[in-house]
Every structure is written in C-alpha cells, then in structure tokens.
C-alpha cells in the first residue's frame, strides 16, 4: 500500500531570498519606468562637436594632400629612371655589339684573343682589374670594355634607386589610403551628428553662417586694403572669382577646392607656383608676423599645426575654402576656430 507524504515546504531562507529578489526587480522596473530619457544635445552642442570633427578632417586632408603629392612625384621619378634604364640598356647592347664586331674581325684575321674570348662569355669586371689582361688587349678594346663596365654600374645603381622608390611609393599609397579613410570617417561622424538636428535647427545654423558671411563681405568692401603686389592682386582676384564654389577635400579646382587647393590654384592663375599643402606653403615667401602688416593677397595661416590657409582680404577678413559643407567665402579671421599664426607674402 502506497504511503502518502506531505510535500516538502520551502525553507524560510529560500522564501526570504525569493521575496527580496522579487522586490528588487519591481523596484528596478519602477526606476526604469520613471527615469527621464537622456536629453538630446542642443543645436550649439551639436555644432561644436561637428566643428571639431571638421577641424580633425581638415588636418587629415592636408596629410592626405601631402601623401598624394609625394605619390605623384615618386611616380614621375620612377618613370624617368625606368626610361633612363631602358635607354642605358640599349647603349650597353650597342657597346657589346661593337666589342663583338672586334672579336669577329680578330677571328677572321687569325683567331680571338684569349682574354677577349673570356670576356665575351663572362663579366668584364673580373678582367679589367687585372693588368695582365689589359696588356693583352688593344687600346680600342680596353676603352670599349671600360665603357661597358661604367654603363653596367650606372644601370645597377639606377635599378637599385628605382627599387627603393617603388618601396617608398608602396608605403605612400598605403598612407594615402589610410588618410582617405580617416577623412571620410570624420566627415561621416559629422554628418550623423547633423542628422540629429531638426529642419528648424539646421535652418538656424545656415542663417547664422549667412549672416556672418554678409558681415565679412561688408567689412571687405568697406576696407581699403592694398595688395601685396601685382601678382598678389591677380591671385586674390582669381580667388574672388570662385566665391560660392564648394569645398571638397583634396580638390584643387576649378570647380571645387580645399583650403590649400584654393590658394595654390589662385597663385597659379597669377603665374606663380606655390606648394600644394598648407604646411609647405609657409615657405613660399617672406613671413609676416603682425596682422597689422598684412596686405591683400598675403597667405594667412591658422592653428598651431598650420593645417589651414587662406588669402588675406583686408580689414581683418580672410577669403578661403573653410570646410566640408561650405563654399569659398569671406570670413572674419577671429571666427576661423583656431588662432592666426602668421602670414606669408609670396
């Protein structure tokens, strides 16, 4: 006969633990329900973060420009060396053919000189260093051998130089790709932040920029800045003709520009070649330390690392390509976002 047992009751300890856990869960749920949602960043906070990302993107852009310029320079140098090697190889072949003709003539006249015969089947360097061999060759043959030896050494040196430049080119291409990704990453992050703004907030930011631009235009028109030179005036006029042209990183015109792309293009229109990057452009002329000594058309540099450049427009204003999302425009030097470092008179 089966026995009937009472079910085992939970211990007091277990009941207490379960009760406490349940109470905690209820409390947490209540707190979560009552917690205020995280506050959306204000328009000004978003703008500050976006401006910082754009500044970092411009830094990377100037590094990108430098790597791109180096790549183009290396490609030209490698192409020149390879052309020289090809021509040198043709000259070497002609020298060897000439020496072969001497050997043929010797054979027809009674046989090839043993030392010349050895040369034709091996490297002449092994024989030119031996006086006994030179004594057995005619002056014409010795001269031909020396030319061949010199040409071989030149070709070896040029091939070695080309090999090193090809390695440098490969590293530069990698750097170029990395900088391009960095720029694109910064711009993507900035765009995501801008997308959090409402249409009204975006319109307000755009209106603020337009008011600032109009104010700068009035300052330029009311000023009486003197161009640094005829070429500076021509460069400034060229840049003025591009007001309203969009900023695009890595662009050098004529339909879009980055900061150093605009300044290098403008001076090129005036018949003056200056370097491509902002940092390199600091060496394009005479440095002007005081803002009061600046003249229209002088290059003006900003930020401690000199990653931004524009053209002085007079009356404390600059004509420049500011950043992604903007166009070539006038702007007060006090609102660039970084300190004025110095000017350069090209």
What does the model show?
It is built from ten helices and six strands; from the N terminus they run ααααααααααββββββ. The protein is of the alpha+beta class and 346 residues long. A six-stranded antiparallel beta sheet has the order 1-6-2-3-4-5. Helix 8 crosses helix 9 (259-269). The termini are far apart.
pLDDT averaged residue by residue = 83
* Euclidean distance between termini CA atoms: 114 Å
The counted number of beta strands is: 6
From the helix content, strand content and strand pairing, which structural class follows?
A: alpha+beta
Question: What letter string, H or E per element, gives the SSE order?
Answer: HHHHHHHHHHEEEEEE
Which stretches of 5+ consecutive residues score pLDDT under 50? 1-7, 10-37, 130-134
Q: Biggest sheet, open or closed, and with what strands and sense?
A: 6 strands, antiparallel
Helix content: 55-70%
The best one-word shape is: elongated
**Annotation field: number of helices:** 10
Question: What is the spatial order of strands in the main beta sheet?
Answer: 1-6-2-3-4-5
Task: Please compute the radius of gyration using only Cα atoms.
Answer: 37 Å
Strand content: 5-15%
């Amino acid at each position: 006969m089966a026995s009937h047992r009472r079910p085992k009751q939970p211990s007091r300890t277990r009941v207490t633990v379960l009760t406490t856990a349940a109470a905690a869960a209820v409390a947490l749920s209540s707190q979560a329900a009552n917690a205020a949602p995280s506050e959306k960043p204000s328009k000004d906070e978003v703008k500050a973060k976006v401006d910082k990302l754009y500044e970092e993107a411009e830094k990377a852009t100037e590094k990108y420009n430098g790597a791109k310029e180096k790549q183009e320079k290396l490609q030209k140098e490698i192409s020149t060396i390879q052309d020289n090697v090809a021509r040198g190889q043709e000259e070497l072949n002609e020298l060897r053919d000439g020496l072969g003709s001497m050997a043929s003539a010797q054979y027809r006249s009674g046989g090839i000189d043993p030392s010349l015969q050895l040369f034709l089947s091996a490297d002449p360097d092994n024989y030119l260093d031996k006086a006994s061999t030179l004594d057995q060759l005619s002056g014409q043959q010795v001269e031909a051998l020396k030319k061949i030896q010199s040409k071989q050494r030149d070709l070896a040196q040029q091939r070695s130089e080309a090999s090193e430049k090809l390695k440098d080119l490969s590293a530069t291409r990698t750097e170029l790709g990395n900088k391009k990704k960095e720029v694109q990453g910064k711009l993507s992050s900035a765009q995501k932040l801008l997308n959090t703004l409402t249409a009204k907030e975006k319109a307000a930011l755009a209106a603020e920029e337009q008011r600032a631009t109009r104010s700068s235009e009035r300052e330029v028109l009311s000023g009486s800045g003197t161009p640094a030179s005829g070429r500076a005036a021509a460069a400034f006029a060229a840049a003025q003709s591009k007001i309203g042209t969009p900023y695009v990183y890595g662009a050098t015109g004529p339909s879009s520009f980055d900061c150093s792309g605009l300044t290098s293009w403008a001076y090129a229109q005036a018949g003056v070649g200056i370097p491509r990057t902002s940092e390199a452009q600091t060496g394009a002329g005479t440095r002007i330390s005081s803002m009061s000594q600046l003249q229209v058309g002088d290059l003006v540099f900003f930020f401690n690392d000199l990653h931004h450049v524009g053209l002085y427009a007079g009356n404390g204003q600059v004509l420049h390509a500011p950043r992604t999302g903007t166009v070539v425009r006038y702007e007060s030097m006090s609102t660039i976002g970084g300190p004025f470092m110095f000017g350069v008179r090209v």
